[in-house]
C-alpha cells in the first residue's frame, strides 16, 4: 500500500551532566576541582533518500530517540557525546508539528538535510565554578534536557502538472500515452491509492513531470474517502489539467464535475484555485464529428474564466499533442523554482537557555547552606529589603524545587539557611 502520511515521536539526546570531583594526589591533600564536562546529546537529523518513494517504514517504527551524552568524569575527563540519529525520508516530505500543523521543514529542492531537534548541551564540570571566594565548588552544571516533539510527515508529490478528474474519465490511459508511466487501467469506480508520475518528453521543449492524482470525490476536502491523502499532492503542482468525459458515456455532467473538484480544491486550500487550469475533454473518439453539445457546453461555461478546453482522445491520441504544448507554454511563464513550503514552526533553541547549577546541603544540625551560580544570579537582581523582592525570592525558591530539597534534608521550623552572606530562619508555609 502506498503510504504518504505518518505520525511519529522524535526526541534528541539529553546532554551529559557535568562532574563534581577534586584532585587527590600524593602530597596534595586539598586539590582543586577537576570535574569534567558532560557530552552533548545527539541531534535528530532528517535526510532525503532518493531511493525512497513512500513513508511506509514509518507505519512500523514510530519512535525515534537520539543517544544522550555521557556524564563528565574526574581528572577533567569530557563525557562522550551522543550519536546523532539520522531519519531518512523521500524527497518531497513535509515535516509538521503535530498539534499546530505548522511546517517545520520541507525536504525538497536544495534542502536534503536538516537538523530538526538539537541535542542538549553537556553540563560544565565543577572546575568551571572555582572563584577566589569559592575554591572548592561542590556543584556542577546539569546537562541540557532533550527536545521532543510529535511530528506529522506528509509526502507531497513533486510534479509540474496535476491531472485530476472523477474516476473512469481516462486519466490513466492519458498518462500511459504521454509519459513513460505504466498505471493500471481498468473501468472501476474506485482507484489505486498511489499517484502515478510520468515524464512528458515533448519535442522542442524541456519536458515536464505530470502526476495522475487519484480520483477525487465530493467531500474530499472534509476527509471523505481518502480526500486529504490525494489533495495534498496537488499543492506542489504548477498547472492543473481537469479531465472529463466529453462523450457522456456514463451520463455524468462534466461542468458539474469540474465545479465539484474546484470546490474541493478551494475548501482544502484556496490558493489551489490560483493555479492555471486546462480542461481536457476526453473520449472524443466515441462521438461523431469534431464537437458535440457536451464540449460546447464546457467551452461556454468556462470561456469567461479564461480556461481553455481541448477536445482529445487518450485512446487514439487525437488532440493530445496540442494540449501538451499548451501546458508547456504555460509552464514557460512560471518560475522554474520548485514549490516549497516555508518554515512556520520554530523550535526553541534550548542550547541558548542558561540553567546554571546549585547545591543544597546540611552543614550541621539546624544549619543549611544554598550556593551556586543560579542562586548568585538570582540574588544579583533581587532586592531582598523590599517586600516585592522578598516575595519573588520565596517564589524562586519554591519553583526551583529548593524548598523541597531542604525538606528532604530534614529542615525544621526555626532552622537557619545561609545564602551568600544572608541568613534566614526557615518556617514552613
How would you describe this structure in keywords?
429 residues; alpha/beta; Spo0b-associated Gtp-binding Protein, Chain: A; Rossmann fold; GMP Synthetase, Chain A, domain 3; 3 domains; 6-stranded mixed β-sheet; 5-stranded mixed β-sheet; 18% helix
Task: Describe the structure concisely for a colleague.
With 429 residues, the chain is an alpha/beta fold. The protein has helices at 171-178, 227-231, 254-268, 293-302, 320-332, 373-380, 387-399, 402-408; strands spanning 5-11, 44-48, 63-65, 85-89, 93-97, 103-107, 113-117, 148-155, 161-164, 196-200, 208-212, 239-245, 277-282, 308-311, 359-364, 367-371, 416-419, 422-425.
Topology readout:
Layout: E1 5-11, E2 44-48, E3 63-65, E4 85-89, E5 93-97, E6 103-107, E7 113-117, E8 148-155, E9 161-164, H1 171-178, E10 196-200, E11 208-212, H2 227-231, E12 239-245, H3 254-268, E13 277-282, H4 293-302, E14 308-311, H5 320-332, E15 359-364, E16 367-371, H6 373-380, H7 387-399, H8 402-408, E17 416-419, E18 422-425
Parallel strand pairs: 1-3, 2-4, 9-11, 9-12, 12-13, 13-14, 16-17
Antiparallel strand pairs: 1-8, 2-7, 5-6, 5-8, 10-11, 15-16, 17-18
Subcellular location: Cytoplasm
Family: Belongs to the TRAFAC class OBG-HflX-like GTPase superfamily. OBG GTPase family.
Domain Obg: 1-158
